[in-house]
Structure formats: structure tokens, C-alpha cells
Amino acid sequence: MNRPLLITLAAVLTALCGLCLWQWKREADFRAAILDYHTRLEAETKAHGETRQRVAVLEAEVARITKLRDDTEAQYLKTLEELRALQPDWAARGLTIEALSRLAAAPAVENQSAAIAKQNELLKSLTAERDAAIEKLNARTREFNALTEKYNKLIR
Prior knowledge:
Layout: H1 2-105, H2 112-155
């Protein structure tokens, strides 16, 4: 009677060892999965923080560029108004030049060479003023275009 009891006891002990081994492996798998989830959570939390920082930096940059664009646009509008104010003056100077050229073309006058010299000086000064105004406009237009390109690049 001892022998069947020992065999049964050995079988039960072997089954119990197998059950313990199976539970130990299952718990090890659970711990590994929990550790993996914890690692991924830390990585995602870190990435989320970095993304928030980058968004804050980009928002500040967008605000700065928007301010620059507004300033440039205000300068552009101011320059445009200045040019509009100068256009009637340019037209008047054009009429003056035309009148002076008619005077120079008038029949012989003693002061004809003096009038021509005076007209040349006036033309040179008017041309210099016009060139200076156009250079200012071109410089501001280049600045505005460069700023617009930077803004467009940042938007994309």
C-alpha cells in the first residue's frame, strides 16, 4: 500500500511543481510587460514635454515675425503715403521742366546759354531727388520682400 501512495504523492508533487513553474513564468511575463509599459510611458511623457517646449518656442517666433510683418507693413504704408504726397510735386516739377525747355527753345535771347545752364542744373537736382526717393523705396521694398519670404517660410 505504500507504493501506490508514494506514486500518487509524487504525481501530485510533480503537478504542484508544474503549477508553480507556470505561475512563476506568468508573473515574470506580467512584470516584463509592466516594465515595458512604464518605459514607454516615460518616453512619451518626455517627448510630450519636448513637444510642448518646441510649440512654445514656435509660438513666440510666430508672434515675433507677425510683429515684424506688421511693422514692415506700417513702414511700407507710410512710405507709400509719402510717395503719394510726392507725386503731385513730381508732376509739377515735370511741368516746370517742360516750361523751361520751351523757354530754352524760344527764339534767340541773350541769356539763352545761362537759361540752358540753369535748366541743366535744375534737371540734375530734380533727377538726384527722384533717384534718392526711388532708392529709398527700393530699399524698403527689398526689406519688405525679404521679411515676407521669411514669414512665408516659417508658415510652411
